[in-house]
UniProtKB/TrEMBL annotation:
Family statement drawn from the similarity comment of this UniProt entry: Belongs to the glycosyl hydrolase 3 family.
Signal peptide segment: 1-27
Record-linked Pfam families: CBM_6, Fn3-like, Glyco_hydro_3, Glyco_hydro_3_C
UniProt GO molecular function: hydrolase activity
Organism superkingdom: Bacteria
Organism: Streptosporangium vulgare
Designated name of the protein: Glycoside hydrolase family 3 C-terminal domain-containing protein
Length: 986
């Protein structure tokens, strides 16, 4: 993950985007206070026998204002006079310790070489919180191990897990999250965070920080787009994903997102009334990288950095992740805010107190470093962690299809292991480096005789009698120079879909990259980096020639304009130019990938085809997917192998739902896995040969090809009918789907009232001949409601292990409060009286037992619109978006001409004669009051004057006529304006 190839200006801008802290050079072993730390006096803050609050107060009282201000930056400098070392926020650890927000002496991001577990979405696919807690424990131990070796480089505040609900499968960071369901997300994040933290009541092994608060599920224009979260979506879907772990004490803070939420940057969205209200433990919140500068920069929300700094601190963000290791701009902004009266000394003390609440729990100020202070680097990549990684990779895999008992394989069978991912393992942006690699071919090769082929074409590119030639060894600049197609002139072409390919040089096995922003060179172990410079397109021309197009930036950046095509100068050196001036190559196919794979398949008893994604190409941070299909060339490879050998198994290795309808129809067995780390090959072999019985389950709905998806910026899952909760479409694979080599029977479902809810029990029996795990899933559906209810909603799950013939009664506790909905009429949760379906099964679409239960509650009353009603608490809408009422708090409705909001079941029995609206507008407009529908009877029109701006609120009034009885009221907007509240008057 080198940054050294970038121009300095680009590297600096990129570092802000990533949270990479480009530090001054320092020897890797050097402690931040090496040679300067004096023996500290025995201050009370160093006495672990004292209460935490007293220790914090003591240290806080000893810090100067300047020292306190300096600690608001992500690199909290040392205070030598107190013997306090530097504290660095942020080590990435989504599925293992990944990298430090720092660079080494060569300017490269420092990546850990330790245990890499399956990607986060794979961890959740285990549906096994106990196992995930063990993974979290290993990650926390390895973080401590790295910290023991170099405390400056490896901080103990871990920026993990990502808990944003996976509501849209196109999100570029899908691999980082857990599930489209908030309950499952909360259970897995709680397990992972608990493991990282450890079980000591007063100390932390490491400090997990939840990402990214809030409404962060798109990469396109991610720092300027606003996620419009209506109250039900906010309270029932988005908040619970964060709240669960914080309530359980399994997280120590949140990282704010880049985007805006209801028109207000998440960086200054109030965390004190939400995040801090969900826990009684110390909370230390951080911004995302560059977020503070965006406030006065790309977002233009504040005029100065000082105003933005003040707003962040008052909103409850204590750490400014910005400006790499340079804290001076943050210090200047905060000092200016103090001088202007935007902040007080009390505000500053509050922020530092919160920081210290976590630093103390990490044992930093204990003489012995606390109970976790003795962990050493020996824990990294330990045999126990390798064993855990293998088990986790096996439990995370999902058997999507297995017809005709294709799986498990028999050891006596000869296996053709083919496909572009058959003999490689890829890491992602948030992976550490793999200390060793067991590929699918390696794992299968330990069990059976194999033949292999990557199934990719090997080509040579020729022009004017000369071949494109690469270097050997470490690689060299490509030149048009070779006179024959030898190894240095040959390249393997890997297809990643939508025309994007990578070229691996046969000369040295390394990928061709655009090095130093200039020429092409074969020097990369895999496509990688923030700007993935290994992407190309081979564009066929009408005359039979081929243009080589550099495609490294075209998806998100267009820094080169039309100069994207490779041109060879007379001396053979390469550069970029426009298509009309590019070199026209003759593409010679040295070896057909499909032909070789087909030959291998024909020679074997069974063919295992390993296909999937490249994590740095097929969607990632800052790059959403535009297509969910398997790469065209990979699909063609599978179909050709299947035609050659009907006994074909597909291993699909990617990190998101894929539209593989044709493979589902044609291939007898499909096994899905994420990019699962060094033990991938062993885990897959364990599954393929039946040593492990597949029991992973999908945590997202996989749509069928051609299924229309809403705009990726539309966060209203209720109105768009998104996720398994609200979708009525038939998916390719449903939420919770996953098969087994054995079968399970369900009997005797009961839902019995108990305490403040119900106890749900069901008997589950392994009715097959193999031991296996079943993931028992409990769903409910509410019959009658004031609002649209989910089709079904996950209420609990258990992964149970059963021997053949063994039975177990699985019990769930379902609290009545768990069935509450967010009542927009009163701004609180409420349980309605209703009958609920109780549904238990192995997937959301594989319900095995049904029952009903009656739940008592309160009937949501008719709306009283004679009381001032927040406009954002509408029941339905068309076109509007939620916006910020002020830059501090409050939501309003932003509307344009023709859009509307409605309030259903309003009680006007006493009649009303007027209406009053709280409005803000830059130009005069009006609002129509209509009854029954947006085109229903016009009861009145409210003229809205220009108020002086979007934050200049005024009152607009008008008479209304004949408004009596129960009515559905529609406010139809006839111009651009904002509305914060509505009141009908008598």
């Amino acid at each position: 993950m080198s940054l050294s190839a970038k121009p300095v200006a680009v590297a600096a801008a990129t570092a802000l985007t990533l949270g990479l802290c480009v530090a001054p050079a320092r020897a890797a072993h050097e402690h931040p206070l090496a040679g300067t730390v004096r023996t500290a006096p025995e201050y009370p803050f160093r006495d672990p026998s004292l209460p935490l609050d007293r220790r914090v107060d003591d240290l806080l009282g000893r810090l100067t204002t300047a020292e306190k201000v300096s600690w608001l930056h992500q690199y909290q400098p040392a205070v030598e006079r107190l013997g306090i070392g530097l504290f660095k926020t942020g080590t990435e650890a989504l599925h293992g310790v990944a990298w430090s927000t720092d660079v080494d002496n060569g300017g490269n991001v420092v990546a850990a070489e330790g245990t890499v577990f399956p990607q986060a979405v794979g961890l959740a696919s285990t549906w096994n919180p106990d196992l995930v807690k063990k993974v979290g424990t290993a990650v926390g131990e390895e973080a401590r191990g790295y910290h023991a070796e170099n405390p400056r480089l490896w901080g103990l505040q871990l920026w993990t897990p990502v808990v944003n609900p996976l509501r849209d499968p196109r999100w570029g960071r899908n691999e980082e999250g857990y599930s489209e369901d908030p309950l499952l997300t909360g259970a897995i994040s709680t397990a992972y965070g608990s493991g990282i933290q450890g079980d000591d009541p007063d100390h932390l092994r490491a400090a997990p920080v939840l990402k990214h608060f809030l409404g962060n599920n798109n990469e396109v224009r991610r720092d300027t787009t606003s996620s419009s979260l209506r109250p039900r979506v906010l309270h029932e879907y988005e908040y619970p994903a964060f709240k669960t772990a914080l309530e359980a004490g399994a997280a120590t803070g949140v990282m704010t997102a880049y985007n805006l939420v209801n028109g207000r940057p998440a960086t200054v969205t109030d965390l004190n009334s939400t995040v801090r209200a969900w826990t009684d433990r110390p909370v230390f919140n951080v911004s995302d990288a560059g977020g503070p500068n965006n406030l006065a920069g790309s977002q233009g929300y504040f005029a100065t950095k000082a105003e933005g700094a003040a707003a962040m601190l008052k909103a409850g963000v204590e750490s400014f992740t910005v400006d790499n290791t340079d804290g001076a701009p943050t210090v200047a902004a905060v000092n200016e805010a103090l001088a202007r009266g935007l902040l007080t000394q009390a505000d500053l003390d509050t922020a530092v107190r919160r920081i210290l609440g976590v630093r103390f729990r990490l044992g930093e100020f204990d003489p012995d470093g606390g109970p976790y202070g003795k962990i050493t680097k020996d824990v990294v990549d330990s045999p126990a962690h390798r064993k855990l990684a293998r088990r986790t990779a096996a439990e995370a895999a999902v058997l999507l299809k297995n017809s005709g008992r294709t799986l498990p394989l028999r050891p006596s069978q000869k296996v053709a292991v083919v496909g572009p991912l058959a003999d490689t393992l890829y890491t992602d942006w948030y992976s550490g480096r793999l200390p060793y690699r067991v590929t699918p071919l390696d794992g299968i090769g330990e069990r059976a005789a194999t033949v292999t082929s990557e199934g990719v074409d090997r080509i040579a590119l020729k022009s004017g009698g000369r071949y494109l030639t690469a270097g050997t060894g470490a690689g060299a600049d490509l030149r048009l120079s070779g006179t024959s197609a030898g190894a240095t002139e040959q390249f393997d072409v890997f297809d990643w879909g939508q025309g994007i390919v990578t070229l691996r040089s046969v000369a040295n096995g390394k990928y061709v990259s655009r090095a130093n922003w200039s020429t092409l060179v074969n020097n990369q172990e895999q496509p990688t980096g923030w700007f993935v410079q290994e992407q190309f397109k081979l564009e066929a021309q009408a005359d039979g020639t081929t243009l080589l197009r550099y495609a490294g930036y075209e998806t998100a950046y267009d820094w080169f304009g039309q100069n994207k095509y490779v041109k060879a100068a007379p001396d053979g050196t390469l550069g970029l130019t426009v298509a009309e001036d590019a070199t026209r190559f003759e593409k010679e196919v040295v070896r057909s990938g499909v032909g070789e794979a087909v030959a291998a398949a024909k020679s074997a008893d069974v063919a295992v085809v390993v296909v999937g994604s490249m994590p740095f190409i097929n969607g990632r941070e800052d790059h959403d997917r535009t297509d969910l299909g398997l790469a065209e060339g990979q699909r063609a490879l599978v179909e050709a192998v299947r035609a050659a050998n009907p006994n074909t198994v597909v291993i699909l290795e990617n990190s998101y739902p894929a539209t593989i309808d044709r493979l589902q129809e044609k291939v007898p067995a499909i096994l899905w896995t994420t990019h699962a780390g060094a033990e991938t090959g062993h885990a897959l072999a364990d599954l393929l040969y039946g040593d492990a019985n597949p029991a992973g389950r999908l945590t997202q709905t996989w749509p069928r090809a051609g299924t229309p998806l809403p705009d990726i910026l539309d966060y209203d899952i209720v109105k768009t009918g998104s996720t398994y909760l609200y979708s009525k479409r038939s998916p390719l694979y449903a939420f919770g789907h996953g098969l087994s080599y054995t079968t399970f029977g369900y009997q005797g479902l009961k839902a019995v009232a108990k305490g403040d809810g119900h106890e749900v029990s069901v008997k589950v029996t392994n009715t097959g001949s193999r031991a296996g795990d079943e993931v028992v899933q409990l769903y409910t559906h509410q019959h009658a409601s004031r609002v649209e209810q989910p089709v079904r909603q996950l209420r609990g799950f258990q992964r149970v292990s059963l021997a053949p013939g063994e039975s177990k009664v699985v019990r769930f506790t379902l609290r009545t409060a768990d069935l509450a909905l967010w009542d927009v009429t009163r701004g609180r949760f409420a349980v309605e009286p209703s009958t609920h379906d109780v549904l238990v099964g192995s997937a959301s679409d594989a319900i095995r037992q049904r029952a009903t239960m009656r739940v008592d509650g309160e009937r949501i009353p008719a709306r009283d619109l004679t009381r001032t009603t927040r406009a954002a608490d509408f029941d339905d809408y068309s076109g509007v978006e939620l916006v910020d009422e002020t830059k501090v708090r409050g939501d309003a409705v932003g509307a344009s001409a023709g859009e509307w909001i409605s309030f259903e079941d309003a009680d006007f029995r006493a009649g009303v004669t007027g209406v009053r609206l709280g409005v803000a507008a830059t130009a005069a407009s009006s609002v129509e009051i209509r009854l029954g529908s947006p085109t229903g009877r016009l009861a009145g029109t409210v003229p809205v004057p220009a108020t002086g701006g979007t934050y200049s609120w005024a009152t607009a009034t008008a008479p209304v006529s004949a408004v009596r009885g129960a009515q559905d009221v529609y406010l139809v907007f006839r111009g651009a304006l904002r509305i914060k509240d509505v009141t009908f008057t008598r």
